[in-house]
Amino acid sequence: MKIQHNYLLIIVIFVNGFCWNTTAQTTVVKKENGWSLLVDGKPFKVKGVTFGYDKDVKKYDTYCKDLQFLGVNTIRI
Question: What pTM value is reported for the model?
């Protein structure tokens, strides 16, 4: 069991090393006809949903796959 724990810890540290350097600059700008959301200086079209809490966390993978299929890029919790 301890060996599995060590492997998991190594994997988590390895993955986090890549994630720490990923950042995006988000800006909201007012234009003549309304507001615009920019991510890294490019317009970002929000395709969002509200995600409600479900006690059955085993279904979350299925939910996420469905949301990805629908093209969702923003989740409000």
Answer: 0.53
